[in-house]
Design goal:
globular; binds manganese (II) ion; about 200 residues; 8-stranded antiparallel beta barrel; about 35% strand; 11 strands
Length: about 200
């Protein structure tokens, strides 16, 4: 577990994002996933999967698709602490990732990566650049493939697997905009949290 990069990018006197407790362990629960809409300088969705005590993270500019024919670019970003899955609010101007963050979907996930009929541990699957994840969220469900591309380092593709949860037309990124935590939209979060100087809630 390494949150050094995460912490180095942030000034916790200014941002309300969690610092991450090194003793934080998910014991007994299924591993969590979260997808956060992030209205940073360039708008994107952050996909985070719990693997070995941290949230492995990708910025997905267009967000996840439910159409197996759509390949969504996903850029690997630094590991985030587990409690980041509960973060919704604004990151103050001037800080890393400044802008509103909305909990767009959340749930548990299961590693379904296999090789020769055996499950490949998630961390190993990531190193190999091929991870199959079964997501159980409110908006996003079923299998998703994450494939590292041969191009620039950190570039991956996020692709819906062709299963019962695949749907060519659903497009939840456009039609289900509200937070699964608070029901707010990203504009409501921006409006409510701006102008309070980033004071803790
Ligand atoms: Mn982000």
């Amino acid at each position: 577990m390494n949150l050094k990069q995460y912490r180095e990018k942030r000034d916790f006197r200014k941002t309300r994002e969690p610092q991450g407790d090194p003793a934080d362990r998910n014991t007994g629960r299924k591993p969590v996933f979260v997808i956060q809409e992030h209205a940073a300088s360039s708008h994107h969705f952050d996909l985070r999967l719990e693997i070995d005590g941290v949230l492995k993270s990708w910025a997905v500019p267009k967000g996840p698709s439910t159409d197996p024919k759509e390949k969504r670019m996903a850029i690997a970003t630094e590991d985030h602490p587990l409690d980041y899955a509960d973060f919704e609010g604004t990151i103050p101007e001037g800080e890393y990732g400044a802008g509103a963050v909305l909990i767009w979907d959340r749930g548990s996930w299961k590693n379904i990566t296999e090789k020769d009929g055996e499950v490949v541990p998630a961390a190993e699957a990531l190193q190999n650049g091929h991870l199959l994840a079964w997501l159980e969220g409110g908006k996003i469900r079923g299998g998703y493939a994450l494939h590292r591309t041969g191009g620039k380092e950190g570039n991956w593709l996020l692709i819906k697997m062709d299963d019962d949860e695949a749907d060519r037309r659903r497009n939840p990124v456009s039609t289900q905009r509200e937070s699964v935590e608070t029901g707010r939209t990203i504009d409501e979060i921006s409006a409510r949290d701006s102008g309070n100087g980033g004071a803790p809630r």
